[in-house]
Every structure is written in structure tokens, then in C-alpha cells.
Specification:
binds zinc ion; TIM Barrel; alpha/beta; two-stranded antiparallel sheet; single chain
Length: about 230
């Protein structure tokens, strides 16, 4: 299964306004991806209508990219739609209340299944939650989600940059990297993490950047993530 599990819609202020949910799914089909997730910053509000878009080629899991108090980006994925409202409530309780300035940060658009803008997120989604990395990871698990640490070797918003290491007792299901070289680096730095899956995603903010069909996992590997 070719996947891209880190894509921002126009709900993320940094996401291009053309990143509507239909455009993202159509581009994923053009690129012949089998599995995608839309992972907006600190919000699951773009996930609501995903299921109602008719498509038979691309499997979609629900996703979010949370920013912890330490300014570490954490990807959370969910398969059960009925867990999303509670998870969103948890995010709402912990996201710092700063109003978005669209002309400065960008629009935060929420679409329906026809790509009509049905609302705007008023709060700036680029700020941090008031929860620690560990608390954030716990919350995702409590809502039956799985956790992948995002772009772990990036200079900004990454666990290695902001914490210096991956805590050995942190329960995570995967690690996102940008290259094969980064996999070697992370393995050397984390000998205590055995058989942890590595993911390569686009972190696309515009349609053209959505992954080509390069990075893949088997259906069995995908199912093992949810055990
Ligand atoms: Zn990020
Ligand atoms: Zn991202």
C-alpha cells in the first residue's frame, strides 16, 4: 500500500486554500496512493465529511498533528470516527486561545463534502497545547489512536531538537523521518526502541507536494500498528 499520512488541508493556516478535501483525495488518486491521512495542526474539524466523499480507491484514516507544550509535533491517527468528537473536545480544552489573523497566518477553512466552506476556525491552530509530550501521547491512546512522532530530526518542532532524545518509556507506534539516512541516525540514537516502524510522508501544504507512490507498507504492517 502506497501511503501519505501527513497532509495539511486548508484548515491549517499554512495549508494552501486549494487544499480542499476533494482536491486532496483526487490528487491522491492521481498519484495512485492507497492510503492517506489529512493531519491538520491541532484540529480534527476537517475530518467530519471525509467519509461522505465518494471514492473507492483511496483508504482514509483520521489524523491530526498536535503541538505539545515543548513545541514537539506529534501525529495522532484514528480509525474509529466516534472517538473524534471527544478527542476534539480534549484539544479544545488544551489549545491556547489566540485568535487567528488570516491576513497574517493564513485562512483556516472547514469544508463540507462538496468543498463548500462551511466555517472558519477562529482560534490560531499554530500555537501549542498546554500539555506535555507524554500527556499528549496518552490522550491519543485514550481515544484509541496511535502515535507517530513527526519529522523527528527537523530543526523545528521535533523531538530531537526540543528534547534531545526520545524518552525510552514513551509509548509510540512509529517515527516519521525525511530520508533513509535519517532512519540510520535515529536507529543509532535510539537503540532501546526495537522494531519501531519508520514512516516517510510528504507533510504537504499544497497539492503538488502530496507524495508520489514511493513509500509503502503492507496491509499486515498497517494492521499491526493498531494492536
Ligand atoms: Zn510538523
Ligand atoms: Zn505537518
Amino acid at each position: 500500500m502506497f501511503y501519505d499520512l501527513h497532509i495539511h488541508s486548508a484548515l491549517s493556516p499554512c495549508g494552501d486554500d486549494s487544499m480542499t478535501i476533494n482536491n486532496i483525495i483526487n490528487m491522491a488518486m492521481i498519484k495512485e496512493l492507497d492510503l492517506i491521512a489529512i493531519t491538520d495542526h491541532n484540529s480534527l474539524k476537517q475530518q467530519t465529511y471525509l467519509k461522505q466523499i465518494s471514492h473507492d480507491k483511496v483508504q482514509i484514516i483520521y489524523g491530526v498533528e498536535l503541538q505539545t507544550r515543548e513545541e514537539i509535533h506529534v501525529l495522532g491517527y484514528f480509525r474509529e470516527e466516534n472517538r473524534l468528537p471527544d478527542m476534539q473536545k480534549w484539544i479544545d480544552q488544551h489549545l491556547q486561545v489566540i485568535l487567528n489573523k488570516p491576513e497574517f497566518f493564513g485562512n483556516q477553512l472547514i469544508f463540507n463534502q462538496n468543498d463548500e466552506v462551511i466555517s472558519h476556525e477562529e482560534r490560531l491552530l499554530l500555537s501549542s497545547l498546554d500539555t506535555s509530550l507524554e500527556e499528549t501521547v496518552d490522550a491519543i491512546h485514550q481515544h484509541h489512536g496511535i502515535v507517530v512522532l513527526a519529522h523527528v530530526l527537523d530543526k523545528r518542532y521535533s523531538v530531537f531538537e526540543n528534547l534531545g532524545f526520545i524518552p525510552p518509556d514513551l509509548e509510540i507506534e512509529g517515527i516519521e523521518v525525511k530520508s533513509d539516512e535519517q532512519i540510520d541516525i535515529v536507529k543509532k540514537r535510539t537503540p532501546y526502541l526495537k522494531n519501531i516502524p519508520f514512516f516517510r510522508n510528504s507533510d504537504a501544504h499544497q497539492l503538488i507536494d502530496i507524495s508520489e507512490p514511493i513509500h509503502s507498507m503492507t496491509q499486515t504492517q498497517f494492521e499491526e500498528l493498531w494492536r
